Structure formats: C-alpha cells, structure tokens
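Checklist before submission:
- one chain only
- standard amino acids only
- sequence pasted in full

Submission:
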Amino acid sequence: MVFLAVGFETTAPATALLARQALALGLENLSLLVAHVRVVPAMAAILADPANQVQGFLAAGHVGAVMGLAELEALVAAQRVPVVVSGFEPLELMAGLVAGVRQLEAGRAVVGNAYGQVVRPAGNPAAQRQLAEEFAVVDQPWRGLGVLPGGGLALRGPYRRLDARERFGIPTMQGNRTAAADPCISGRSLRGLASPPDCPAFGVTCTPEHPLGARMVSSEGACAAYYRYRPPVDGASIRPSPRGTQGILASPS
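Returned file contents:
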C-alpha cells in the first residue's frame, strides 16, 4: 500500500504520526508518497516577485492552528504586508477581509488573528514536535512558482525507509513546464496578475472534475470559486477586473 500524503502543515502531523506508528509496528507493506508543502515560503516567493500585485494575505486558519503565528510575524516584519489569519465560514472570511482592508487603509502591516477561537499564537506545540521528528524541510516544486527553498517536507532519518520515492525509484517532480505543455496560469494568478477566467484552460480542460492545478482542485481555491459561481451557460461569461486580482488579499491556495 502506498499512501499519498498531500497537504499543507494542516495534514502533515497526521502523516508524521502514521510514519511513527508504521515504524514502531515494523510494517513492511506500507510506503508514503509525501507531497506536503509549507505555506509561508510560497507567500514569501509571491511577495519577492517584482511584478507581484498582492497587497495582503488571508492566512489559512487550519495551518495557523498547527504552526501558530511566529512564521507569519517574521514574514510581515520582512515584507511589510498585512496578514490576517482567517477561518473558512462566510462570516469568518468577512471578518478577515475587514481586518485586512482596515490595515491597508491605515498603512499598517501586522499579523492579525480573526480566528482566535481556533488559532493560538504558539499553535499546536505537540504537532510541531511531531513534524520536527519525522520530517525535514526541503526545497519543493510549486505549480506556477518553480522550486521554492524550504517549500516542502520530506521524511527524515529512520523514517526514510517508508519513502515510496526511494523504495520504488520514483523520479523527482519538475518545478517548471513549458506553456505549451502546461496552459495553467496559476503562477500569474497567485501574484495577482491575472484572474482565473484569463486562463485558456479555465472551464474548458480545467474543471473541478478534471483540475489542472491546485487552485481548481481545492474548493477553497480561487479557480474553483470562480467556476462554481460563474454565470449560467447562456452565452454570458465572467468578466474579470482589468487589474486582475490586484488589491485583493490573497491566499496561497
């Protein structure tokens, strides 16, 4: 059995626990294909791009529940861009948006926590210890952003014996593809340079049933939201803003 371990720091602690139990039980028929990624390196890469138009972030509350606020505070101190941790229900998202817009209007840049009922400043120390024991931080290819330093996690030490890549000789993913081979414009969309309908694959070869990128895979992704709330099929089409997503607080999902 090969377990496909996908997700941000939200799901990685469960994979770490699985690895620990598998090793303790001496399981020989279980391997882990790890595709866990880290959020803050992606945010830093977006902000480091000279063409970037993102002015602030809504940070995912489930990641904050595990990792706390320290990494976000370091990012804000370096980049002077407001970040607000938010939940996922409509009122929670609106609270995060309001807090972020107020920071922008006031010219402030701090880490706000609009999801205090779940996210604590220190996060979940037990989960963080679990991650540190089973995983090492590694460079990781991200769709549309290339290879990000420290952008992912990989099994470390004795837990590498469970690594499906090593056990079965699975090649490392490539971080960049040609436009002809990959029409997805997720990188431009993440930087606030384009809206999902600007993508030639949007709603044609890229749908929630057959996604080409993470922003269509996840129900929280921008492409999936645009697709779900698109106008009825009556000849109408979504008209993106001339400035793409500029001025909107973005999420890296």
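Reviewer check: Strands lie at 2-7, 31-36, 57-60, 83-86, 111-113, 135-142, 146-155.
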